[in-house]
Amino acid sequence: MLITSTNRQDPNFYKDFFDFASKISGKIILWQIPTYDFNARHGEIIGSVPASLLDDLLKRANFILSR
After folding, report:
1. With contact defined as beta carbons under 8 Å apart, do 27 and 16 qualify?
2. Which of 17, 28, 56, 62 has the lowest tally of Cβ within 10 angstroms?
3. Residue 1 clears pLDDT 80, i.e. is over it
4. Any bridge partners for residue 18, and if so which?
């Protein structure tokens, strides 16, 4: 998921996020799904989200992709 540090206030498009373990914070961009090759760009998973947030993000992604 994409995270921005820009202070955006629209809750329909951005969701506040802070992971204490990895100290990553910002706003999750809810209207864009990454389309790059994670492996080719040597992506790393560096944090985690609570199960409730993951469920919400999966529902939103499913909605976007079902259109």
Report:
1. yes
2. 62
3. no
4. 25
Residue 48 confidence (pLDDT) above 90: no
Furthest-apart CA pair in the chain: how many Å? Answer: 35
CA distance 66 to 45: 26
C-alpha Rg value of the chain to the nearest Å: 12
47 versus 27: the higher-pLDDT residue is 27
Domain extents for the chain?
A: 3-65
Residue 67 and residue 56: Cα distance in Å, rounded?
Answer: 17
Placement of tokens 């790059």 in the chain: 36
Cβ contact 28:57 at 8 Å: yes
Q: Quick check: 11 pLDDT over 90?
A: no
Q: CA angle 20-24-25, nearest 5°? A: 100
